[in-house]
Amino acid sequence: MSGDVRRSSLLAGGTRTRLVEAGPEDATEAVVFVHGNPGSVDEWIPLAQAVAARTGKRALAFDLPDFGETIAPAGFEHHVAGYAAFLGEGLGSLGVERAHLVLHDFGGPIGLVWAMTHPDALASVTLIDTGLLPGYRWHYLARIWRTPVLGEIFQAITTRAGFRFALNANEPRGLPREFVDTTYDHYDSRTRQAVLKLYRATPDPGAMSENLIGLFRPRDVPALVIWGEHDAYLPASYAVRQREAFPSAEVHVLPASGHWPFADAPETVERLLAEFLGRVPATA
Amino acid sequence: MPSTDPHDATVHPSSSYDAVVVGASLAGCAAAIQLGRAGLRVAVVEKRPDPQAYKRTCSHFIQASGVPALERLGLLEPMEAAGARRPRVHIWCQWGWVESPPERAPRGVNLRREILDPMVRSTAAETPGVEMMLGWSAERLLRDGDAFAGVAIRNPEGKERDLRARLTVGADGRDSRIAELSKVPVKTYPHNRFAYGGYFEGGAPVHSPDATAWFLNPQWCAAFPTDSDLTFYAAMPTKDRLPEFKSDPEGALVRFISDVPEAPPIREGRLVGSMMGKVEMTNRMRRPVAPGLALIGDAALATDPLFGVGCGWAFQSAEWLSDAVRPALQGAEPLEKGLERYRRRHAKELRGHAFFIHDYSTGRRFNPGERMIWSAATRDPELALILESYGTRQIGPGQMMPRAFPRAVAAHARHALAR
């Protein structure tokens, strides 16, 4: 068992993406972290390292196309299904047969859509401020992004200071400076365009809720839900609703966290995730 | 007519007193002790027959504002001898810790009600002039013209007695029967949190023996180390979290407290006894006087337990009442003058606090003014001391605000310039 993080790259879906791994290299069962928007593999490094060290499991994460430092291949479809297919190709290349998905933000729909097409490969799911969102109406930023012209202007005038202010203004305790700056460093023009495409291709984020419930509820997949009570984008009232699809889910609404609990409460998220993964049977 | 039954609860056959107090909990006993020491004859009526009875659902924290009243009653020393802790409260909020200078931080008292209540009751019973009538409950109020003049009481065997008194005191808690019978005006304010708590052995918080409170905006929890090396852990979440607590009170409390920032090691502790919980805590503010009648403690003002004011204000309101009516009961002035003095004191001391407590008990988050003061208090120990003096109810909002706002502005300005 090793807690050291290995950084490399992965050829998947016609592009080369940044890969971060910890724990046993060749295990076919892995804890797979999927980032949201804005986000990249960088935000998962401390957690992946800690989880591998504490559970002995293989932990890995990679950039989604046009996020982080990864360039989308020509013809890539910037919608949930496109990203889910990319996730599947990445996992296939890495030899992952059973995945403990750890999903955040837009990584939620992406990971869950992949799981819907590979239900037997889903060992467990951890939803961090994401999941099924029945009846959800897009948050104000998403509504701006989804509006033609306005979205482009908004993306064009977003500066580092503005980005920093916008992220922190909605967080109860603020986010670590390094976390925000790293996130902004990756929020380049390619990512900004990808964000517009992804949000415009997702008119109703709650649309697949019924399908998720229908597929996963009878399977009673082991699930952990972590949600920041002060999440300004995806309301914490959705945390307990994840039990509609994952009836045995353990739900933790962190009372002093916002949209990024792994950034503002890293020890708590690490403990909850490591303990949860320790309880999940090796072969579910 | 006085009873001649030898099994009657009274030692003395007389049924006429200077004051009859209904409720032998903290406020009632404290008032009886003060009035008895003034040479007055006091009957204390309590429906629970057991002299060891105690209030179970209580955080038992006595704010620093109540300490002088305990000292005056002569209870502080025996309480400390019985293992009471004298904690200050370390407060966590989303901007950091609110820490006043340690040597000047206000200190309250923590002693479990299991020990405190029998101690206060036996002190009252041993006070000359005080007669304890345990196992009797108030049935109706007696009248003398327009004024109340005592109570009719009944025991479980159905025996009834009239206790006549110049002053009737309702010290029978949040659901006061005396208040109900007297029909004094009452105002209610909604409460949108619920409370669960329990005593834990082991798993003491890092600030122990001091207390810790997390203002999670809007959620709340706290740890109160107390006698016998126990820690009382309590949470007061908003009501949307109730189903989780109802289905597994202990597990939900442990999970809730483990998930807070800089969480105490509650998981290493073991629950001693059973969990306690209270779901409905509507704030009630009653007019504390009527002709010949006064209400003290929770009977007068039953407010949000989140701020731990109930026990301290029970002792304090008992003191205010006994000081106010003593001259009248000693024949120096009409009773209504003393009661009016008590009403004014009660309003002056508590109305401002109650207003802000009731406002926050709706379950809301901090308003802009609170955000400004609390965030600044994490950077300025002197401002933290002002805030703590207010939170421990040693100063009122009228004294707190003019001192706190300028300091908060200055603290924010210093912080902005330093960046």
Descriptive report:
The complex is a heterodimer of chains A (284) and B (419). Chain A is of the alpha/beta class. Chain A has helices spanning 45-55, 80-93, 107-117, 140-146, 150-157, 160-169, 177-185, 189-200, 209-216, 261-264, 266-279, and strands spanning 5-12, 15-22, 29-34, 58-62, 98-104, 122-128, 223-228, 250-254. In chain A, helix 4 (140-146) crosses helix 5, helix 5 (150-157) packs antiparallel against helix 8 and helix 6 packs across helix 7 (177-185). The two termini of chain A are 22 Å apart. The relative contact order of chain A is 0.15. Chain B has 419 residues and is of the alpha+beta class. Chain B has three domains: 16-55 and 117-188 and 283-359, 3-Layer(bba) Sandwich (FAD/NAD(P)-binding domain), CATH 3.50.50; 192-278, 2-Layer Sandwich (D-Amino Acid Oxidase, Chain A, domain 2); 368-418, no CATH class. In chain B, strand 8 (137-144) and strand 9 (147-154) form a beta hairpin. Chain B starts with 15 loop residues before the first strand and ends with a helix. Classes of the chains: A alpha/beta (284), B alpha+beta (419). Chain A binds chain B through residues 172-173, 229, 237, 240, 251-256, 265, 268, 272, and chain B through 94-95, 214, 216-217, 219, 237, 240-241, 244, 255-256, 258-261, 263.
Task: Lay out the secondary structure.
The complex is a heterodimer of chains A (284) and B (419).
Chain A: E1 5-12, E2 15-22, E3 29-34, H1 45-55, E4 58-62, H2 80-93, E5 98-104, H3 107-117, E6 122-128, H4 140-146, H5 150-157, H6 160-169, H7 177-185, H8 189-200, H9 209-216, E7 223-228, E8 250-254, H10 261-264, H11 266-279
Parallel strand pairs in A: 3-4, 3-5, 5-6, 6-7, 7-8
Antiparallel strand pairs in A: 1-2, 2-4
Helix pairs in contact in A: 1-11, 2-3, 4-5, 5-8, 6-7
Chain B: E1 16-22, H1 26-37, E2 42-46, E3 61-62, H2 67-73, H3 76-81, E4 89-93, E5 96-98, E6 109-110, H4 113-125, E7 130-134, E8 137-144, E9 147-154, E10 160-170, H5 177-182, E11 186-189, E12 195-201, E13 211-215, E14 220-225, E15 230-235, H6 242-247, H7 249-258, E16 270-278, E17 283-286, E18 289-290, E19 293-295, E20 301-302, H8 310-329, H9 335-360, H10 368-377, H11 381-391, H12 397-418
Parallel strand pairs in B: 1-2, 1-10, 2-7, 4-13, 10-19
Antiparallel strand pairs in B: 3-6, 4-5, 8-9, 9-10, 11-17, 12-15, 12-16, 13-14, 14-15, 17-20, 18-19
Helix pairs in contact in B: 1-4, 1-8, 8-9, 10-11, 10-12, 11-12
